[in-house]
Design goal:
Helix content is about 0%, strand content about 45%. The protein is mainly beta. The two termini are about 45 Å apart.
């Protein structure tokens, strides 16, 4: 297919969105539009075949092809960190909380609406769970059954600040396993594309979007940690490596068919209904024959600027019977379905509705039923 030298140039700048989907359910696992940096890159071993006098280069048979990528988002995400570990974010997380409790009978007892929990790393069948009163740092312990704080003598009627562990229903928790099992998922990356409208970037305008579709990626090599800087915020980084996805089916039966595995697809989608790439309309065969009282579809196709032939969306086209006004045949205005009404010949004009200069004519012959 030929490259068109007069095709307007486009410019890509920045990842605008990234979305990660579960490959089994199709559910969204992670999404962000707060990307700061990002890139995808490919690499391969040239696989040079050498021989002959002077060890000449005879051919290259590439191998070890890899597609990798990374991006950094300005916001913080537990879900993204979970992708790198193989962990899932859960609600009702256990955490440290503080409650003001008034002593009764020289004792402190947790209120009825809370349930103490063991500290992380503490056995759930421990006699008491970690519990602190005030600021002295002493673990006085709370009885998980009676909720009474042990080892502390309180002053009757005095209010104390008590710190203990419990589960909070809307708190989120991500487990950090000792052995990571990075998630394999379906990734979509969206990049805005700009058209050249003037002599500077300020005069450019949005022309469309470039989508990167990667059926199988694994999130390996990233950093799921937290930055403790007092001046720089913690960002979210993800590294991924594409895995080969084979789309071949048993219907393909050819000894010389290509292997068929892919890492992904790059798809450019212009904004709006842009027909600039359509070079012409073509009617297959030139003559459409239909019996009186029966119907037939107008066989129209797009001829693209690279010579490719595509089936159009018939709703984008307008069909009209020329000359006789429908004596011999009628046609659906946006369906292209021809209805033979009487024996004879007529013509049908096909036009791209949004680009009237693109037109074609179909010769129609209606035969006896």
């Amino acid at each position: 297919m030929a490259f068109q030298k007069n095709k307007p140039p486009c410019y890509a700048k920045g990842f605008s969105e990234a979305a990660v989907y579960d490959i089994v359910t199709g559910d969204l696992l992670y999404w962000t539009n707060k990307l700061k940096t990002g890139n995808t890159s490919t690499s391969m071993n040239d696989g040079a075949i050498e021989g002959g006098l002077g060890n000449q280069l005879l051919a290259n048979i590439p191998d070890t092809v890899r597609l990798t990528g990374t991006f950094e988002a300005a916001d913080f995400s537990l879900e993204a960190r979970g992708l790198q570990m193989g962990s899932t974010v859960r609600y009702n997380a256990k955490t440290l909380v503080r409650r003001r409790i008034t002593a009764q009978s020289n004792k402190l007892t947790l209120p009825d609406d809370v349930t103490p929990a063991p500290a992380f790393g503490q056995s759930s069948d421990a006699e008491t769970y970690y519990c602190y009163v005030g600021n002295d740092g002493v673990n006085y312990g709370v009885d998980p059954k009676t909720k009474e704080i042990k080892g502390f003598t309180a002053e009757n009627g005095k209010e104390y600040c008590v710190q203990f562990y419990t589960n909070v229903f809307n708190a989120e928790q991500l487990t950090i396993p000792a052995n990571f099992s990075p998630t394999v998922a379906y990734l979509v990356i969206k990049t805005p594309m700009y058209a050249e409208n003037g002599t500077s970037s300020k005069n450019s305008s949005l022309a469309g979007y470039l989508y990167g579709f990667y059926p199988r990626v694994q999130f390996v090599g990233g950093d799921a940690g937290v930055n403790g800087s007092q001046t720089d915020p913690t960002t979210t980084s993800l590294n991924f490596t594409a895995q080969a996805y084979n789309e071949l089916t048993d219907e393909v039966c050819s000894d010389c068919n290509s292997e068929g595995a892919v890492y992904g697809y790059l798809t450019y989608v212009p904004c709006g209904e842009d027909f600039s790439a359509v070079k012409a309309l073509a009617i297959v065969g030139g003559v459409v024959t239909v019996k009186q009282g029966e119907t037939a579809q107008t066989p129209v196709f797009y001829v693209m600027d690279n010579g490719e032939i595509l089936t159009p969306n018939y709703g984008d086209l307008t069909f009209k019977v020329a000359g006789d006004g429908g004596t011999f045949a009628k046609v659906g205005e946006h369906t292209g379905i021809i209805n033979g009404t009487a024996e004879g010949k007529t013509t049908i004009t096909v036009t791209v509705t949004a680009k009237p200069t693109l037109t074609a004519t179909a010769n129609v012959t209606v035969t006896a039923a």
